[in-house]
Write a structure and sequence with these properties.
Blueprint lengths: L2 H15 L2 H7 L5 H24 L4 H23 L13 H31 L4 H7 L2 H12 L1 H7 L1 H22 L6 H29 L6 H27 L8 H49 L1
Length: 308
């Protein structure tokens, strides 16, 4: 109802707006076999995480799925490093800032998806709210994201990406800790969900888009599109892993008995958000080192220009 019409409209707009030369220059398609391998690996990992609580973590079926996930990932990595047109250009991850931003995107993406899924399930299955009421209750968080992003754009230009990512990670961790402390079986929107939504929305506005920008801005111009695709793919994979982790922690049937399981999921999200803050600090250090390296060269170039 939503994704299919949106996808059709996007394809139609792309055919009208995107330059035809782009299609001619691309030539052969990227590695389709690699796409199959990574899809199977993610599916096996998700299946293992979802089913292992029921089957047993050491059950032969769980171990088989984990083995398939590991083997698929290894085969995909090997193929991507050797293929002339890999699905993911993995060598880009060796670039310090891009690699750190990609890790941060993956970690924060898991925390973000856990928050989204857990809040919806809590409102509908614990508080017994309707889907419409739950959707309206969730509006403040997403509504804050573009506002915070726009208001802090100049700050990012002045201070760099790292401080914003660190602040966003800490705010999102605070949002998850708030839910852990104040979530009640009785509906408490103003004390429980709304403050968490505000903190979380501010955290997402500061961290998520900034992580993508930090990664892509560190790439050479001719690799910006490829790097952006890689980062966004990492974010989508993290969402899949997050759903599987949440189901593994809470279970397939949600009710008041799973209250403690929800808290475990929120604590996991808080820990991952704190890890994102650490990634922001690392990006800050990398940017500082880069400026120190480039500053003497820039000074020398200015002196030569003035002399000339």
């Amino acid at each position: 109802m939503i994704n299919v019409p949106t996808g059709i409209a996007t394809v139609a707009a792309g055919l009208r707006v995107l330059p035809a030369t782009a299609r001619k220059e691309e030539g052969r398609l990227p590695d389709l076999a690699g796409a199959v391998l990574i899809t199977l690996a993610i599916a096996a990992l998700s299946g293992a995480l979802v089913q292992a609580p029921d089957w047993g973590w050491l059950d032969s079926r769980s171990l088989l799925l984990f083995t398939l996930a590991l083997a698929g990932t290894a085969a995909f990595t090997r193929r991507s490093l050797r293929h002339s047109r890999p699905l993911f250009e993995l060598p880009l991850l060796r670039l310090p800032q891009f690699g750190a931003a990609s890790i941060g995107t993956f970690v924060f993406g898991i925390a973000f998806a856990i928050m989204l899924l857990s809040n919806v399930l809590w409102c509908q299955d614990i508080w017994h709210w309707s889907a419409l009421r739950t959707g309206v209750a969730m509006v403040p968080g997403p509504a804050l994201v573009p506002v915070v992003t726009l208001l802090t754009a100049r700050v990012a230009q002045r201070l760099g990406h790292g401080p914003l990512i660190t602040t966003g990670g800490l705010l999102f961790a605070a949002a998850m800790l708030w839910r852990t402390c104040f979530a009640s079986l009785e509906a408490g929107y103003w004390l429980d969900l709304l403050p968490s939504q505000v903190l979380g929305g501010m955290g997402v506005g500061l961290a998520l888009g900034t992580l993508v920008a930090a990664g892509v801005s560190s790439l050479p111009g001719h690799r910006a599109a490829t790097g952006s695709a890689l980062v966004n793919s990492v974010r989508q994979i993290s969402a899949t892993v997050a759903v599987a982790l949440h189901v593994a922690a809470v279970g397939a049937h949600v009710g008041p008995a799973q209250r403690q399981d929800f808290r475990i999921a929120w604590l996991v999200a808080a820990a991952l958000s704190a890890a994102t803050a650490v990634v922001g600090a690392r990006i800050t250090r990398a940017a500082t080192r880069t400026r120190k390296v480039l500053a003497p060269a820039a000074t020398q170039a200015t002196r030569l220009t003035d002399t000339h």
